[in-house]
Amino acid sequence: MKKISRLLTFGLMGCFLFNSCSNDDDITDDNTPDPQGDYSDGVIVLNEGSFGDDNSSISYISHDYSTIEPDIFFSVNDESLGDTGQSITFDDEFAYIVMNVSNIIQIVDRYTFELVGSIESGLQSPRYAVIENGKMYVTNQNSSTDPDDDFIAIINLETLEVEKTIESTPLEYIQEEDGLIYVQNAAFGNGNEISVIDSNSDEIINTIETNEELNSFEIEDGILYALSVSSLEKIDLTSGDVIEEIEIETGDASDASNLRLEDDMIYYTVGSSVYVMNENAEEAPEEALFSYSSDSRWGAMYAFEVEDDRIFIGDAGEFSANGFVQVYNLSGELLEEFETGIGPNSVYVQD
């Protein structure tokens, strides 16, 4: 493991250079210097690689979409990222790369991607993470043979050690909102609950029930939007009451998935098609915003993101060769297409 002191020293240097260690959403004055680094803006694509092989990678696409670098972690650090990159969590000057099969979280400078530390113990098939109160909350799916042994690891970011675990199952996505940690107790077509953890006490204080086969959720303005395979629920976070439920007709294409909220609009996918509706809509759209062609059985729409007036989709093909990312405008017009590494599963916009 990289020495903890090196990570802490780097963090202090980052605070000095950038005048503050602020959250991404904080507003800074015009005198604050812009972050410096080769990857301080642009698009980051996490390629999970082939399961069981040490071939995960991170692709970088420049802000103007003129260039792409296929594996910036290796080019910067001269070493492999690891086995099965699952997700990336960004906070202040760092990016935390969750490696599912390697059971490690690689910590890099988010603007240079220089490796500055790692978390190597207390993890078992980690999936997704959020940061709050100086702690990282990581969902772990543990063993594949026991569906009831999942847990949330709570990591002290000063020591990089797991200081507590919370058993909860099944587990997948995780989000933070107003000091509360929302954990999706549903994965791979099973589950219909969201656990709520108080980040001060690190105890589960509430459980929100949703429709069966929950696959993604978002929170905005006191409302939890929960997407299951064929419906979207709007749930009041204070009362827990379902405000509205919208049925989604998917036909034989696939399940509804990949819920995203952006600029008062709701986006989701069905198969290789993208749908959009207003947050106040009472019915799901009948027509897709756009569709793309995919020959992949499991890798179609493997990555999906809406950010900065752009829609990003990633196709993993058959997970044996490089995939691709396409960039669309909000009208559904294709702008760019890039070859990535194997299994592009998530897209992040740096700015």
What can you see in these coordinates?
The chain has two helices and 28 strands. The strands form seven sheets. The chain has a four-stranded antiparallel β-sheet. The chain has a four-stranded antiparallel β-sheet with strand order 4-5-6-7. With 351 residues, the chain is mainly β.
Q: Topology, pairings included?
A:
Blueprint: H1 4-18, E1 42-47, E2 57-61, E3 68-69, H2 72-77, E4 85-91, E5 94-99, E6 104-109, E7 115-119, E8 126-132, E9 135-140, E10 151-156, E11 161-167, E12 174-177, E13 180-187, E14 190-198, E15 203-209, E16 214-220, E17 223-228, E18 231-236, E19 242-247, E20 256-262, E21 265-270, E22 273-278, E23 290-291, E24 303-307, E25 310-315, E26 324-329, E27 334-339, E28 344-350
Antiparallel strand pairs: 1-2, 1-28, 2-3, 4-5, 5-6, 6-7, 8-9, 9-10, 10-11, 12-13, 13-14, 14-15, 16-17, 17-18, 18-19, 20-21, 21-22, 22-23, 24-25, 25-26, 26-27
Brief overview:
By secondary structure, this protein is mainly beta.
Please state how the strands of the largest beta sheet are arranged side by side: 3-2-1-28
> First CA to last CA: what distance?
30 Å
Largest sheet: 4 strands, antiparallel
The number of helical segments is 2
Count of DSSP E strands?
A: 28
Instruction: Using the CA coordinates, give the radius of gyration.
Output: 20 Å
Residues in helix, %: under 10%
Overall pLDDT: 90
Residue share in β-strands: over 45%
Low-confidence runs of at least 5 consecutive residues:
1-29
